[in-house]
Design a protein that fits this description.
The chain is built from 10 helices and 15 strands. By secondary structure, it is of the alpha+beta class. The chain has 4 domains: about 100 residues, DnaJ domain (Helix Hairpins), CATH 1.10.287.110; about 90 residues, Urease metallochaperone UreE, N-terminal domain (HSP40/DNAj peptide-binding domain); about 70 residues, Urease metallochaperone UreE, N-terminal domain (HSP40/DNAj peptide-binding domain), CATH 2.60.260.20; about 30 residues, no CATH class. A 4-stranded mixed sheet has the order 10-11-15-14. Strands 1-9-8 form a 3-stranded mixed sheet. Strand 10 and strand 11 form a beta hairpin. Helix 2 runs antiparallel to helix 3 and helix 2 crosses helix 6. The protein starts with 7 loop residues before the first helix and ends with a helix.
């Protein structure tokens, strides 16, 4: 190693052929030992920075390769460089690595996180009638989605071979790029293109799915709608989202249900509301009135003396509840229909009726004219 360069392997206390896991374990141990908050030595901060710098280089395959060749991560500069402010903001020394050094890996996987292999959930809307919402129904539809590849049985391989770690990203699924700015070296992580961010490659990829183990298709789907479902509720159909990469778990289909407005019924939760026209005699004398309900005809007992706007309740004639099995009520709003035109006989009868209530009969126009002339 050229004079004046730093021996990062010695800083971490590992051999030059140490594996990634050995380097990470050594970093955690050294970081605990020399952290300024733990170690009271006056040079603890410098040693802690040196540990960070060593790990930043040796944990990155590209930097480590350059360092092993030239004894520095930047041959043009003639010397190494450590994690400055650019490294921190650019990801040279991941905060997850720092947290994992002190808290046993609580922060997660560090800077080598792969693209998820599981299939994504898919979403759609479905419009149903109020009758379908009341009874429950199975709706048939077609969905464009990624499905497992039949050609390779979702393995992604044309000859049944197993995937291997991507040589470009060493199985991390990510590539690190860096550039110098006035703040220092800025580093960014991007998905590895050769492996699509999965960290794996297939030697003999299936020609149908290009090694992904899934292909686009139009699929028939049956969506079970439970009785009592309300507008805006969601139904999850497991396994009918996007298929996962090379046999990984498929996502789910999330269906948002929209209930179309009804001709004469209005819903509030599990209760239904309806307007019920009544004649004057029905309102005065009482009657049995039949309404068309969602599950058949409903008989409403109208008591004598019902007023316009009165609300009559028919228990159990509403919507079923999704959970519990009970049903809501039907609220019937009385709407008394006052006739605008009467026959002569009807007027006479209403006149006689008004006298029984002690009301003075209203004089006709001829009678008012006769009284005026005689007066």
């Amino acid at each position: 190693m050229p004079a004046g360069t730093k021996d990062y392997y010695a800083v971490l206390g590992v051999s030059t052929d140490a594996s990634e896991s050995e380097i990470k374990k050594a970093f955690r141990r050294k970081a605990r030992e020399c952290h300024p908050d733990v170690c009271g030595d006056h040079d603890a901060e410098d040693r802690f920075k040196a540990v960070n710098e060593a790990y930043d280089v040796l944990s990155d395959p590209a930097k480590r390769d350059v360092y092993d060749r030239y004894g520095t991560t930047d041959p043009r500069a003639g010397g190494g460089y450590g994690p400055d402010i650019g490294d921190i903001f650019g990801g040279g020394f991941g905060m997850e690595d720092l947290f994992s050094a002190f808290f046993g890996g609580m922060a997660g996987g560090g800077s080598g996180r792969r693209v998820r292999r599981e299939g994504r959930d898919m979403a759609m809307q479905l419009v149903i009638t109020l009758e379908e919402a009341a009874e429950g129904v199975e709706k048939e539809t077609y969905l464009n989605r990624l499905v497992p590849c039949d050609e390779c049985a979702a393995t992604g391989s044309s000859d049944g071979s197993q995937p291997s770690a991507c040589a470009t990203c060493n199985g991390t699924g990510q590539r690190r790029t860096e550039r110098r700015t006035f703040l220092g070296v800025m580093q960014t992580l991007t998905p590895c293109e050769p492996c699509g961010g999965t960290g794996e490659t297939i030697a003999s990829a299936c020609s149908e799915c290009q090694g992904q183990g899934r292909v686009p298709d139009r699929e028939h789907v049956t969506i079970p709608i439970p009785a009592g479902i309300d507008d805006g509720m969601q139904v999850r159909v497991p396994g009918h989202g996007e298929a996962g990469v090379r046999g990984a778990t498929s996502g789910d289909l999330i269906v948002t249900v929209r209930v179309a407005p009804h001709e004469y019924l209005h819903r509030e939760g599990a209760d239904l509301h309806a307007r019920m026209p009544l004649t004057v005699t029905q309102a005065v004398l009482g009657a049995e009135v039949t309404l068309a309900g969602l599950a058949g005809d409903v008989t409403v007992e109208v008591p004598a003396g019902t007023q316009h706007g009165d609300v009559l309740r028919v228990r159990g004639a509403g919507m079923p509840r999704v959970r519990g099995g009970s049903r809501g009520d039907l609220h019937v709003h009385a709407a008394v229909d006052i006739p605008r035109k009467l026959t002569k006989r009807q007027r006479e009868l209403f006149g006689e009726l008004s006298e029984t209530f002690g009301e003075a009969a209203r004089p006709t126009t001829f009678e008012r004219l006769k009284d005026w002339l005689s007066g």
